[in-house]
Fold this protein.
Amino acid sequence: GKGHSHWSYEDLKHWSTDYSDCGGTKQSPINVDTAQATFSPDLRPIQLSGYSLPANKQLKLKNNGHTVVLELPESLALTGGYAQQYRAVQLHLHWGSPLGPGSEHTINGRRFPAEIHVVHYNTKYDSFTEAMVHPDGLAVLGAFLEVGHGENQYYHEILKHLFEIQEVGQETLVPGFNIAGLLPANLKLYFHYNGSLTTPPCYQTVKWTIFNQTMLLSHNQMSMLVSSLRTDDDKLLQSNYRPVQNLHGRRVLASFQ
Ligand SMILES: NS(=O)(=O)c1c(F)c(F)c(SCCc2ccc(C(=O)O)cc2)c(F)c1NC1CCCCCCC1
Ligand SMILES: [Zn+2]
């Protein structure tokens, strides 16, 4: 990868000195004020294709010091809900600690326990690195994770490997599974806005989709997520979320009323 960036969630102030876009006016994450969201009936249901992977397709799972990343094959494609076709790059998670929740986006000021991001790039560009510098270059699907009663079998496919990658830089291979199971069954109800990567370089090139339906994990699964990984100073990797950013006049669209 790009090697370990020296930024951290502790010194957010320096992000914009080292990465100018981080001080821009279309930054993410944001708080979604549902009363201010504009119902947009032409927002189509999100459609996923190729998300169901056979077990013999091995995927790389890595602790990169800031999150756990599952690399995804480009065969996973977003075909509905966006004007252009996007293909998957990777998915990763944001979480809190035993002291509090760690989603990046908030809804009416409410922070959820955790949040998944599935990162895609616009296939009109030759590569992800080319796409990520263009305003329509990236599409990230986000969903909130909450604690429910039963075990979530899809999240188990990732969480059961966390103990193998406790240290920064460690990676392991995960058998393929139905990646769509990590996202809500109802892909019609979502918020949509133009924003950025929530980590340096903070490029303002992301069309965000935040689903209204949340994902339920067991209490044990959520505590595995918040207490398995370490950072490069051997502390627990926790609360890896950026504070919400100012909308600066941006509108948030809703696919539902
Ligand atoms: N919410 S988000 O999508 O902005 C996001 C984060 F908030 C993230 F925190 C991250 S992880 C931090 C960036 C990073 C660091 C090291 C390595 C490596 O060693 O391979 C890779 C990446 C992270 F990877 C991503 N997504 C990345 C954005 C960073 C650069 C391009 C990689 C794909 C999308
Ligand atoms: Zn993210």
